[in-house]
Design goal:
Layout: E1 6-10, E2 17-21, H1 27-31, H2 36-67, E3 76-77, E4 83-85, E5 101-102, H3 103-107, H4 115-125, H5 131-137, E6 141-142, E7 148-157, H6 170-182, E8 188-193, E9 201-206, E10 215-221, E11 227-235, H7 246-261, H8 284-293, E12 299-300
Parallel strand pairs: 7-8, 7-9, 9-11
Antiparallel strand pairs: 1-2, 3-5, 4-10, 6-12, 10-11
Helix pairs in contact: 6-7
């Protein structure tokens, strides 16, 4: 093209080729030395080259942007170290790596309430619940998950169990336990994943607890009492001996998922959250208490309690 060439050069770092139009500015000088017919031809060919070069450059930049991490979006909160065993105070360890939790997700959409306003709302809705027992067990504080409807809590259930007493229906029983609380009408959803590393909640099974219990739930929270991750361990054997049936496993799972959601024990044996499970489904009081808990933000009802309330 009489000195005007479309060349393929490498960028300075030598990583990606860039289409560069060389001496494009000399187009006007060339036009002055040729006939009108040639000038039209030069314009058509050169403009086509410019368009191709521009398209290639824009495409390359877009590809580079897609591969780069977004700045300022990946601020994460790891496990705070405040692990509360709601069944057994023994330290269970943390056998799984925690996924990163985005700060906005941890804090939820609900703003913190002043303690007096939180107490007012709880008192207003306390009838038919055991919220007073929950506050007494948690040093006047409420722990709960942020709203997880459009972004469900990811749950991994160990289905590769090779232990005496194992029943292939147990994973279904556990999933039913999660669904039972969702059906109570709280702003929470759960999705069951195959990859344990991507899960917020891990459920695994053991032959038997040495401490005479059927299940154990541990969770991690922020200093503002928002829950961010949890582990559930379920026994395949009754404390007194004998295998657990799928229906019994569902009842145990309902109890443990109640702990996972932020509930503690209640003295009434008619509730699934009794220390010793005697029922197979949620009671009206179980449903009313979990709905009340998820109608207010996490936090302390104590006057003067800061965001760093670290009581277990």
């Amino acid at each position: 093209m009489d000195g005007t060439t479309l060349g393929l050069n490498r960028s300075r770092n030598g990583e990606e080729p860039l289409l560069v139009l060389q001496d494009c500015a000399s187009l006007f000088g060339l036009l002055s030395r040729h006939s009108a017919q040639h000038r039209v031809k030069y314009v058509e060919v050169t403009l086509s080259g410019c368009v191709l070069a521009l398209a290639a450059f824009v495409g390359l930049q877009a590809r580079q942007l897609r591969g780069a991490p977004a700045s300022g979006v990946s601020a994460a909160v790891g496990a705070s170290g405040m692990i509360d065993s709601t069944i057994d105070a023994a330290d269970p360890g943390v056998p799984f790596e925690r996924p990163a939790i985005v700060m906005r997700e941890v804090m939820g959409s609900e703003p913190a309430l002043a303690p007096n306003e939180l107490r007012r709302r709880l008192l207003q809705g306390a009838s038919g619940t055991y919220i007073d027992e929950l506050l007494a067990s948690r040093d006047s504080s409420l722990a709960r998950w942020p709203v997880r409807v459009t972004n469900p809590v990811r749950v991994w259930i160990d289905e590769t169990v090779e232990l005496d007493g194992w029943d292939e229906h147990f994973p279904v029983s556990v999933r039913d336990g999660f669904d039972g609380w969702v059906e109570a009408g709280i702003p929470m959803r759960f999705t069951f994943v195959r990859d344990s590393a991507s899960a917020d909640v891990h459920v695994r099974f053991i032959p038997k607890f040495p401490t005479g219990i059927s299940g154990k739930t541990t969770w991690t929270r922020t200093s503002e009492w928002w829950l961010v991750s949890a582990d559930i361990v379920l026994s395949l054997t009754h404390p007194a001996g004998g295998p657990v049936s799928p229906l019994q496993m569902r009842a145990i799972a309902l109890h443990e998922v109640g702990h996972l959601l932020g509930l503690d024990h209640t003295a009434d044996l008619a509730n699934i959250m009794s220390p010793r499970v005697r029922v197979r489904d949620l009671s009206d009081a179980d449903r009313a208490t979990i709905r009340l808990l998820y109608s207010v933000p996490a936090g302390s009802t104590k006057d003067g309690a800061g965001s760093g309330n670290n009581h277990h």
